[in-house]
Amino acid sequence: MLEKSLFLLCFSSALAKQLCAPDASDGYKVRLSIRTALGDQAYAWNEDELFLFRATLAFAMRNRISGQQFEVSNIIVCDETPRVSFWFVVTSPSNTSHLVDKEEVEEAIRKSRNRINSAFLLTDKTLEFLGIPPTLAAPVSPDTPPWLIVFGVVMGAVGAGIVVMLAFSVVQKKRKKDGKVVDEAVEEETRAKTTDNGAAGDGVYNMSFSDDERFTEM
Amino acid sequence: MEKDARPSWDSPVEFLLACVSYAIGLGNVWRFPYLCQMHGGGGFLIPYLIMLFLEGLPLFCLELAIGQKMRLGSIGAWTAINPYLGGVGLASVMTSLYLCLYYNIINAWSFWYLFNSFQSVLPWAECPINSNRTGPIEECELATPTQYFFYRETLDISSSIEENGGVQTGQALCLLLAWVISYLFVVRGVKSTGKVVYFTATFPYVVLLIYLIWGFTLHGAINGVKYMFTPKMEQLANPTTWVNAATQIFFSLGLGFGSLIAFSSYNQYNNNFERQAVAVSIINSGTSIFASIVTFSIYGFKATINYESCLERTRILLLNTFDLAEDKITMDTVFEWIERLNATYPQQFAEISSKLETCDLEKELDTAVEGPGLAFIVYSEAIKDMPLPQLWSVLYFSMLLLLGMGSMLGNITAIITPLRDFKFLSSMSIELLNGIVCLFCLLLGLGFTTTSGSYWFTMFNDYGATFSLLFVVLVEVITVSYIYGSKRFEKDVEDMLGHRPNWYWRIMWKFISPLLLITVFVFYIVNYIRGGTPTYQAWNKELGQSVVTEYPVFGQVFIGLLLVSSISCIPLTALYVYCTRTKRGNRRRQLTVSTVSAEGLAP
Question: Nearest residue on chain B to A32, judged by CA atoms?
């Protein structure tokens, strides 16, 4: 009895090892970069973490394929390296020697990627499934591009500035014209005054004293 | 009674600031650091400063003197000096017109980048995602996000100058804004320009100072500054160094465009322009050196960041290929690990050798860029890696805008002032004349906002104003020294300043500067002929980089037209004046004959 169970255990683990191998056709390579992601707060990678990983993947499979009860034992891991990378395959719960198809596994991981990442405090970049490119977040495109808003503000301000300036110059010109009419009237008065008096005011040049030399020479 | 007294600056300070604002432009920021890098770092300062004293300062003072004496724009001033050489002024106006057409495009680009800085993630920081959402757009992946943003999202550049496309709306709107602001600045002539230059001349220094202090705190900035200041004295033996120094001084001061003549024509007759000329020239060169220190600290930062990310990528590649624990290889030990792994696993190493990049800090620092590529690609790449990039981006592009706008003031004034001197245009209100000129330049400038517009821009930038200016200034200095007469000119200067110009000015004006200009001119022609077909950098979408392409035939014809149209003004005007004079002379002789005969007949 004991030998039979021992034999079965060895057989199953050997079979599992055979199912999971690097470059397996239905397997994926996983690479974690914990130190890059968390720096000083990085946790050590050990058996327990690996258990969590297998549990998370089982959850992902359950999430994708409803009805089938995936267990931790259905996720087989092999070829662990100090890099913290390993290969895994998923066996079907109904038939442990039959592997779930690559596409199904990919879909499952894609669907629950966020949950898997957050279980390990990692991101798409630091928890890599080689061969499954992450679906990038859709670009947020607002209705009006932001540059147009700023442009509108500046253009409005500048336009207002020009209108104000042109209006100001028109008003100034009008004021100058009115002022000129008043000035001309004042000038005529002063001109008349000086011709009456003969004594030169400040502004009018009296021609009679300009050619002094001519008179004195005589 | 003077009805239309010539408008004048409210104070000599305004004139000084206007000259400073005009002379200090984008060339100080993007051309001088490049030349420094190409010609041996700190050692370049020697030819630069020598050329400043031999050529820049005397020619600058000459133009100011002419403007202040004649109190007319370039066309009127040169016609007054010698009627046959009025074409010199006309050539200046033509060149200024070309400059106005294409220079405001740079301001439009600065506006575009400035407006796009108001986002949580700068649009040139990351590649946009392709339609499948599997990765970044291919063109962006081959190039860098900053290059992609400039060539695709800003310019939507075509693959060559022959392929045309429509006008880019974003570009056109920004160009419209640039012209509207330019109009606002010059609308009332010197009255409005004089107020604006207080801001445009001083704010760039504030930004440069902020950047200088900030730059020195950046990681790796010291590498750049050290690189710049280690002089490579052997470059001094290269004649190109000296010629480049001469041309840089020349173009940096903005000689030959007629802007300086226009600005100084609004001066009071006895304004001390000699002192101002010295001040502006020294400020200009000082700013160039200051700006290049800032540029090199930014370079150093960018090069260090690139170098370190290259090391990081190599480190990850090694870790992933050989499945080593993450903390086994650090950034400092990458190189020794490469050697070790190459020795122990040669086969595996050979497989990844194609993906392995050579990380070299010197090489990163060596990548010398000038022109719009420096301002819009290299700088924005450095800015995106800084903390709080939006602030730095806004500061930087505002500074570029002010530098560009300040120079535009001079360019537009160089066109408007001679036009106002013509009788039939002086009756028009100044606002209307300015508006017409700005509108005309805007409409033609829209051609630079098409998909191939950037290539036309490069053509104008390289050929529109370089060669013709050298010729114009050469004719200017020879005219003043020999045709007008240096004795007469010195008397004019004495009349304005109260003392004769000393021996330095006299020797430079009469002998040294013309000689230098002739040398540079000849060098330019020889270089042009030896260079073969003119080429430009075309952006290749598939490769994600610029490719050197020859100009097609119509492009070369256009280059020829650009050069000929401004240079030919001088001989053509001389010919025209000669013809009209002889005709007038003949007519006068006929008149005197008829009046004499009429008098003889009178009783």
Answer: B326
B585 within a domain of the structure (yes/no): no
- Which B residues, 171 through 200, put their C-beta within 8 Å of a C-beta on chain A? 173-174, 176-177, 180-181, 183-184, 187-188, 192
Instruction: Please check whether residue B584 lies inside any domain of the structure.
Output: no
Q: Which helix (H) or strand (E) holds B603?
A: none
- A146 — contact with chain B (CB < 8 Å)? yes
Give phi and psi for B423, each to the nearest 5: -60, -45
Q: Which of B114, B118, B184 sits opposite A165 (nearest CB)?
A: B184
B23 is in an annotated binding site: yes
Taking the CA atoms of chain A, what radius of gyration do you get in angstroms?
A: 47
| Model pTM score | 0.83
Q: Which one of B118, B177, B323 has the shortest CB-CB distance to A155?
A: B177
Query: Considering only CB atoms, which chain B residues are within 8 Å of A135?
Result: 133-134
d(CA B421, CA B413) in angstroms, rounded, equals: 12
Alpha-carbon A132 to chain mean position: 23
State the residue range of the domain holding B246. 3-567
CA dihedral A66, A71, A73, A75 (to 10 degrees): 40
Chain B residue with the nearest C-alpha to that of A136: B133
Contact A90, A61 (CB under 8 A): yes
Q: Is residue B583 part of a domain?
A: no
Nearest CA in chain B to A204: B1
- Taking one residue from A and the other from B, the number of pairs with CB-CB distance under 8 angstroms is 79
Distance separating alpha carbons of residues B208 and B450, to the nearest angstrom: 33
B289: CATH: 1.20.1740.10
Q: What is the DSSP code string of B114-146? A: HHTTSSSS-TTTSPPB-TTSSSB-HHHHHS-HH
Contact (CB, 8 A) for B376 and B30: no
CB A54 within 8 A of CB A72: yes
Q: Which of A35, A81, A147 sits opposite B116 (nearest CB)?
A: A147
Between B115, B118, B181, which is nearest A158 by CB? Answer: B181
Burial of A22 by CB count in 10 Å (0-12 exposed, 13-18 middle, 19+ buried)? exposed
Contacts of B258 (CB under 8 A, 6+ apart): B73, B74, B89, B92, B93, B96, B414, B417, B418
The domain tally of chain B equals 1
Span A193-216, pLDDT tens digits: 555 554 444 555 565 655 444 444
Average pLDDT over residues A151-155: 90
pLDDT tens digit sequence for A97-145: 888 888 888 888 888 888 988 888 888 888 888 888 777 777 777 778 8
3-state secondary structure B169-216: HHHHHHHHHHHHHHHHHHCCCHHHHHHHHHHHHHHHHHHHHHHHHHHH
Question: Cβ of B601: how many Cβ atoms within 10 Å?
Answer: 7
Question: How far is it, in rounded angstroms, from Cα B34 to Cα B28?
Answer: 10
Mean pLDDT of B65-88: 91
By three-state DSSP, how is residue B538 classified? strand
Would you state the torsion angle of the CA atoms of residues B224, B225, B230, B234, taken in this order, to the nearest 10 degrees?
70
Inspect the interface and report whether the beta carbons of A33 and B326 lie closer than 8 Å: yes
B342 marked as part of a ligand binding site: no
Whole-number pLDDT of residue B177: 94
DSSP states along B502-513: -HHHHHIIIIIH
Best CATH choice for the domain A11-130 from the list 3.40.50, 3.30.60, 3.30.70, 1.10.287: 3.30.70
- The rounded distance, in Å, linking the Cα atoms of A209 and B527 is 70
Chain A's closest residue to B326, CA to CA, is: A83
**B527 in a labelled binding site:** no
